[in-house]
Amino acid sequence: MFVIDIRVILHPDDLERGGGAGGAVVAGSAITPSIEPATLPLRWVSASVLVVLALRGAATAVHQYRRRQTTARADDRPPLTPARACTGLLAPTMVNPMT
Q: CA nearest 25: which of 6, 11, 41?
């Protein structure tokens, strides 16, 4: 097991106040043993979800590309508005703030 001395990472005031980074490090290290057995299955599930999303996106892109090649008429949907584009990027960012 890899152990880090948290005194190097944390400022003493963080531990005294009981919040901020100190609280997150202490809470994370406390629950790590209980969730460690589930990490491998969760990684496989995460990878599977990403593969399914990639395949779905590729299939949709190919379908739209082929449909535009075979028909001369324009798409019936209105063009993407800036607000909808922002919302489309904001939603995944809220789910995963690291993006």
A: 6
